[in-house]
Structure formats: structure tokens, C-alpha cells
Amino acid sequence: MPSYQFNVVGYIQSPYKQKFAIPRQPGLIAEATGYLVLEEDYSDEAILRGIDSFSHLWLLFVFHETADKGWSPMVRPPRLGGNARKGVFATRATFRPNPVGLSVVKLEGVERKNGKLMLKISGIDLLDGTPIIDIKPYLPYSDALPNAAGGFADAAPQTAMTVSFAEQASVFCAQQSQYPDLQVFIEKVLKQDPRPSYKKQREGEQSYGMTLYNYNIKWTVNGEHNHVTEIHQLPE
Ligand code: SAM
């Protein structure tokens, strides 16, 4: 069987520092903003000429965090509560024969900072450090198919989850001037109910924690309500 090798063209800088709580697809949380920092061999404005006329880009990336975990022909999509099995090629599962992911993201701009050429992007579903193997413009005339059938994932996932913030948590968010959307971002992450399916069936109050940017966020879940109890900055 032939095999091909690809070069990493850049890496993602993302607020998502762990897999837990990343949305299952891009575009679900517009406030999830990050950077695609191009590697030195591709750090040339010529390579991006014309890209700013596109609002969205396709990113092809490596599921680097799980790439060594193998794959199975059948997977249990979280969307189906983890109970039904589907063929891996009928899903967007991370455990695949080739650990390649595909996400459409919004292009916010092109920047050069500290000598590095980077694309500012939003609506991402990518872990910090994700290696990118290709970038292509999104072409609405060909890529947007309003009549396409969406199988078992026919519409964006909906939950009835609500979110409240303890005073310390909202004051903390308001003080982070570099991330003015921080509270809305956290709220949207929690509204999608990132808990694994088996924990959603549990009774009583449960406590959780996650890292976004360099913030540790703690919250409790009771029924369909999330309460953010405290947020702290992690040491550099
Ligand atoms: N939009 C992509 C696709 O369809 O190929 C990704 C879909 S996959 C279901 C989304 C999940 O991938 C996220 O919830 C996150 O947990 C995981 N993920 C994101 N970046 C990753 C990485 N670099 N390595 C492993 N898993 C990653």
C-alpha cells in the first residue's frame, strides 16, 4: 500500500488546552479565537496572497493528541449518547485510519508578530498545538450544500443547559481586558454540556474543572444548570 508523508505547515494556538470541553465541530462557538502560526518554511506573505478575500478557510490537521491510540472500524458517536455504533467513515471521530481532521474556520485577519506569520481565526474546534497540514479557501458556490442530508447529525447539537456565575467568577472575567468575550465564551462552552454521556445520567451535584487560555475554571452541575464557582489564573 503506498504511503505519503506530509509536512506540517503551521501549528494552532488555541484557548482549548485540553480535549475536554472543545466543541464537536467548528463554528459552534464564535468566541473561540486562535492563531495558525506558519512554520518558518511557509512564513512568507507571498504564500497567503489573496487569502484575505475569503471569509472562511478549510484546515486539514492531525489529531496529534490521539494519533497513537489506533482506530476501530465501528465507533460510538457521542451525538448518539455513546450507545449506537456507526462505521468510522460515517462519522467525524478522531480515531481514524489516518488521524486527519477537517475544520472550516472564520478568517479574522493576517498578522506578523515577533517575526512569525499567522492567521487569526475564530469558531475553532482545535486543541492547542494542533499541527496543520494544509489550508484551503472555503468556496461557498461549491462547499455550501443547503439540501445535503446530515445523517445522525442533521442539526447543531442543542441542550437545555443554563449557566450562572459566582461573583468572583464574573468579576474575574470582567478584569481580563485582553479577552473581552471571556464570560460569554465560558458560558457557551458550558451550554453545550461538555460532560461525557455516562456522567450526564448522574443524580445530584457534580463538580468539574477545565482550562481555557491560562485560566482554571471550576463549576458545578445540578440537573440542567451549570454554576461557575471560581476562576483562577494558572502560573505561566
Ligand atoms: N471538525 C473536525 C473534523 O470533523 O474532522 C474535528 C471533529 S472531532 C469530532 C472534534 C473533536 O476533536 C474535539 O471535540 C476535540 O476533542 C478533538 N480534537 C481537536 N483537536 C484535536 C487534536 N489536535 N488531537 C486530538 N483531538 C483533537
TrEMBL record:
Alphabetized, the UniProt keywords read:
S-adenosyl-L-methionine
PROSITE patterns hit by this protein = TSAA_1, TSAA_2
Please report the stretch or stretches of sequence annotated as the TsaA-like domain.
6-147
- Kindly list any coiled-coil regions of this protein: none
Top-level taxon of the source organism? Bacteria
> Would the keyword S-adenosyl-L-methionine be found if you checked this record's keyword annotation?
yes
- Show the PANTHER family listed in the entry: TRNA (ADENINE(37)-N6)-METHYLTRANSFERASE
Identify its protein family: Belongs to the tRNA methyltransferase O family.
What this protein is called in its record is: tRNA (N6-threonylcarbamoyladenosine(37)-N6)-methyltransferase TrmO
